[in-house]
From TrEMBL:
Positions of region (Disordered): 48-73
Transmembrane regions: none
InterPro entries the UniProt entry points to: DNA-bd_IS481-type, Homeodomain-like_sf, Integrase_cat-core, IS481-like_transpos, RNaseH-like_sf, RNaseH_sf
GO biological process, one term: DNA integration
Residue ranges occupied by any Integrase catalytic domain in the UniProt entry: 130-313
Protein name stated in the entry: IS481 family transposase
Gene Ontology MF terms in the entry: nucleic acid binding
Organism the protein comes from: Streptomyces chrestomyceticus JCM 4735
Family matches, as PROSITE patterns: INTEGRASE
Length: 317
């Protein structure tokens, strides 16, 4: 990579070298013409004589001899430990007897990505994908969330008092449909995750997306019981959707909606102590509107989900 303050590009270096080597310009004249030092002019002229056009490109600054480089046997041990145990530089450093910074450099040198960018089950780099247009794929999943008893739970009252006040609160089943391309989300708080409940949610979700100009083509779910029943398949046929299912024990395939649920918990459900479930639910509509229309999404380059929907009304509010 050329330094941002470099006076010469490879093309400029070639012109300078040709002036000296082929046209016989004195080095100082060529240096003055191209506004560089005479030693720089001599270096590029010499490279042109030895290597021709190829010599005008940047070279690696790595030294030819590195007497203090980590021995190959140690590097191989670091790589082996990483692949077998899938641990990071700090733990690798302890096991291999090197500094954490050394372990990090070894991993980078061998092209091993950070653990956060790998699949936990296989250790292979995560293959990220994104559909090309809105509606091409809809991710659907359910998140179970403990309801807050009147008066508040342990987050508002503390663990001792919250434990006494939690009896009979039950669970909230948050059904979410999220568009793969835009990350636009639709969520309902429903009493259960039975087949009829899930099918009804899918019908309302596709209608919600249709009202925003998005025609859903496919729907992806996990292998939960409700999504494997005839009720779900029949609803997909009636809505002209192609049902898809993730591989067993591979929730990463439906990772976009899984990540949305994590955001939902961090930024709404557990964002502050609530004194009742009603209070928390009252805050949800505003949060979801903020997520869809105003919150920058790092997965889509800092844009908002609504900005990826063509001609969606209210997206600039």
């Amino acid at each position: 990579m050329i330094h941002r303050n470099a006076p010469l590009t490879p093309t400029g270096r070639l012109r300078l070298a040709r002036c000296v080597v082929e046209e016989g310009w004195p080095l100082r004249r060529a240096a003055e013409r191209f506004q560089v030092s005479h030693t720089t002019a001599a270096r590029w002229a010499g490279r042109y004589q030895r290597h021709g056009h190829a010599g005008m490109e940047d070279r690696s600054s790595r030294p030819h001899h590195q007497p203090h480089r980590t021995p190959a046997a140690v590097e191989n041990e670091v790589v082996r430990l990483r692949r077998e145990h899938r641990i990071g530089p700090l733990r690798l450093a302890v096991r291999a007897g090197v500094a954490p910074s050394t372990a990090h450099r070894v991993l980078s040198r061998h092209g091993l990505p950070p653990l956060a960018a790998t699949d936990r089950a296989t250790g292979e780099p995560v293959r990220r994908y994104e559909r090309q247009r809105p509606g091409e794929l809809l991710h659907v999943d359910v998140k179970k969330l403990g309801r807050i008893p009147d008066g508040g739970g342990h987050r508002a009252l503390g663990r001792a008092a919250g434990r006494k006040n939690r009896a009979g609160a039950g669970l909230a089943y948050l059904h979410t449909a999220l568009d793969d391309h835009t990350r636009l989300a639709y969520t309902e708080d429903l009493p259960d995750e039975k087949a009829d409940t899930c099918a009804g949610f899918l019908t309302r979700a596709t209608a919600w997306f249709a009202a925003r100009g998005i025609t859903v083509e496919r729907v992806l779910t996990d292998n939960a019981w409700a999504y494997s029943q005839n009720t779900w398949r029949r609803t997909c046929r009636e809505l002209d959707l192609q049902p898809r299912w993730t591989k067993p024990w591979r929730p990463q395939t439906n990772g976009k909606v899984e990540r949305f649920h994590r955001t939902l918990l961090d930024e709404w459900a557990y964002h502050r102590p609530y004194t009742s479930d009603t209070e928390r639910q009252a805050a949800f509509a505003d949060w979801l509107d903020w997520y869809n229309y105003h919150r920058p999404h790092t997965g889509i380059g800092g844009h908002t989900p609504a900005s990826r929907v063509t001609n969606l009304c209210e997206q600039h509010i």
